[in-house]
UniProtKB/TrEMBL annotation:
Lineage, broadest ranks: Bacteria, Bacillati, Actinomycetota, Actinomycetes, Propionibacteriales
Protein name from the UniProt record: Peptidase S8/S53 domain-containing protein
Keyword tags: Hydrolase, Protease, Serine protease
Naturally occurring in which organism (per UniProt): Arachnia propionica
One Gene Ontology term of the molecular function aspect: serine-type endopeptidase activity
Peptidase S8/S53 domain segment(s): 119-347
Amino acid sequence: MDPHEVSTIGRGAPSARPEYRRVPCWCASAAVLPWQAPDEGDPDAPPPHLAALTLATTLLLTPTTPAHAEDTITDQKYTSVAGIKALHDLGLTGTGVTIAYIEAAPDLTVPELQGTDIEIKNPCNYTNTPKSRAHSTAIAGILANRNWGWAPDAHIINYTTLTSYDTSVDEYCSAAPSFSAIIHQALDDGADIINLSTGAYFPYHESTAIIRATSMGVPVVVSAGNSGEEARNPGFKDETSLASLNTVVGVGSLTLDLERSEFSSVGEFVTIMAPGEDITLRTPDANGDLTVITTAQGTSASAPMVSGLLALGKQKWPNATGNQLIRALITTAHPVGEQPNPYYGYGIMQISPFLNTDPTTLEDTNPLFTRRDKNVTPDTITDYKDGLLLPTKTLGDPTYRYRGLDPDAVYHHPTRSHFGTSPRYHR
């Protein structure tokens, strides 16, 4: 195989899978600007620095190599593929951007997170298990590490919640807050991008937070899951995960050779692909301290790579909305087969074309309404903006006010209603 050519066909593909063609790969390096556009004089010029990045979750990072002792994680294998150092050298570090990520609290004492701007919000004083902390620490590093993180100068806010490994709940908190409530809090705090590297069940009645995020133009990036056709539990819970909701950016995993990871989930919820294998991270020792270093894989890691790239786009194009950034992400993706498809979504994330595309020239609407989800639709978003969604459809939203003409809705929700004031009545 030519070293500059890789197969984008997922390994172990069943016969029913589309035969996706091989595509060339031009990866970013310090010698070539990571957002350099192809020569417009050559119609056959390939997009430079084809860099795909993906990972998924429910604490879905699975160790893949024996653990060993080491003081500091100084590099990641994906950094040379993505040209991380070149991006940093050119000033693209996420300055001025706020990224919220929702899961267990990271361990801020590890060497890899020194010098980062990470804030932890843990109002219920949850005590996460070492395994949960290890997962969160890995995600924080991908976002913010000074050497190999995507956006080391971004403001990162961790909203601590319980994971499937945690049982400790503060006596003053009756139960863990829903993802919907935490997303609302992140929106209140001014998050530009929200990352969830988790495959947790997300009830459809909690879609109000996604409706609000979409109406505000804030991208919600979610790992697509590790339940691919070749995985241990193929398809497990994928259709009830947050990634299955319309407007959410569902991220699948690639190998560093830009092939779909065998474990990466397949379905209509896959939006984009990014690296999710060979991630170096810390795991707990016998005392629960994160002193053991190993490698792992999972779409949990892919999601923060996409969130990090979106942060760089927001820094370079500060007037772009989140909807426009999502459009730029999928329109510049390198397609593998029909767009979108269940295996690759819109394709492989491309760094240079994305950063070279002025997103403010694109339509300011979310393009991800192709899923079977009936709760988050274009009409729902329009009704939300006009205040015509019934209050029962927006429970938990601290900002929403019903402005319609339903007297029962006003009667039962007087503090959340402004009768007859919808802007739709005055157009």
